[in-house]
Design a protein that fits this description.
The chain has about 290 residues and is an alpha/beta fold. About 50% of the residues lie in helices and about 15% in strands. It has an 8-stranded parallel β-barrel with strand order 1-2-3-4-5-6-7-8, surrounded by 4 helices.
């Protein structure tokens, strides 16, 4: 599992101000908070002229790779040129939109880096079948162009559960179908925190952790996450290694096995006297 830190994101007013003002102390603190990540996502929106100073600073203060997250293809190329050894970096992202797909896939091919592909065109399809159809078309176009299938990371697009509750399982089904459909299976990746966008802060962590359990059961290869949620990272690693340490870990492994084997959440046995286990099961019921 590849973990990509989401914490440097221009949608945050404090991050935006730090980028505009080149506040290196603020940025350094953000990078230090993401040292547990394999990769840091540099989300600068459509801005230009930022990667020229930001990428060298990140390289000085962070030992992992970079996910170049902007709709500005010229800015991405600036960053890739500076980083140089880009085979483990990410371009975030392309979609079916022809202009965007061509620009981003050309850069991925030129710099031999990973490409995140959003299963959407001008809007997000409502069903897993529609998302798979888009993934198949992009896969064919990308591999025909010469991109390595193992460098393609399909994102099924997670929608907030409080806005589109039925879409949680459509995203999970898309992950499953992508792994089952292709002769050489591409990789899959999710922006995990999208599932809990707009939800009260106190319940965000449990929704993210349970949904991460669902997605991990579908052979997920990477996730963009809040690096500060160290318990989330621990749970995902525990599920991958199947080494439960706590009572709640045993419940998470049961959920993992149930999703993996197309079982029923309602059939899972748990400790009804445990408030934490009750919350986990309730969250499963909401998602499913």
């Amino acid at each position: 599992m590849i973990f990509i830190g989401e914490n440097l994101h221009i949608i945050s007013k404090s991050v935006k101000n730090a980028l505009i003002n080149k506040d290196k102390n603020f940025i350094k603190d953000l990078l230090n908070a993401q040292k547990n990540m394999d990769c840091v996502d540099l989300n600068i929106g459509p801005q230009s002229g930022i990667y020229e100073w930001l990428v060298p600073f990140v390289m000085e203060n962070y030992s992992g790779n970079i996910s170049f997250d902007t709709t500005n293809a010229n800015e991405i190329e600036t960053g890739l040129n500076i980083f140089k050894n880009c085979e483990n970096c990410f371009i975030n992202s392309a979609s079916k939109n022809k202009d965007r797909f061509e620009k981003m896939s050309d850069l991925a091919l030129k710099y031999n880096c990973n490409l995140i592909l959003l299963t959407m065109d001008n809007g997000i399809p409502k069903t897993a079948d529609e998302r798979l159809e888009i993934a198949m078309e992009m896969y064919e176009n990308a591999t025909t162009k010469g991109l390595n299938p193992q460098k393609l990371y399909f994102d099924p697009l997670i929608l907030p559960v409080n806005v589109a509750q039925n879409q949680a399982m459509e995203s999970i089904n898309t992950l499953r179908m992508i792994k089952e459909t292709f002769e050489i299976a591409p990789k899959t990746l999710i922006g995990l925190s999208n599932i809990s966008n707009g939800i009260p802060k106190e319940i965000k962590p449990i929704i993210n952790r349970v949904f991460a359990c669902y997605a991990t059961a579908c052979e997920l290869d990477g996730m963009i996450v809040n690096a500060k949620d160290t318990e989330l990272i621990r749970i995902v690693k525990m599920l991958k290694s199947q080494t439960p340490q706590y009572e709640t870990d045993i419940l998470y492994t049961k959920i993992f096995d149930t999703i993996k084997n197309f079982g029923e959440i309602d059939n899972i046995e748990y400790n009804i006297n445990s408030e934490e286990e009750q919350k986990i099961i309730k969250t499963c019921q909401i998602l499913s």
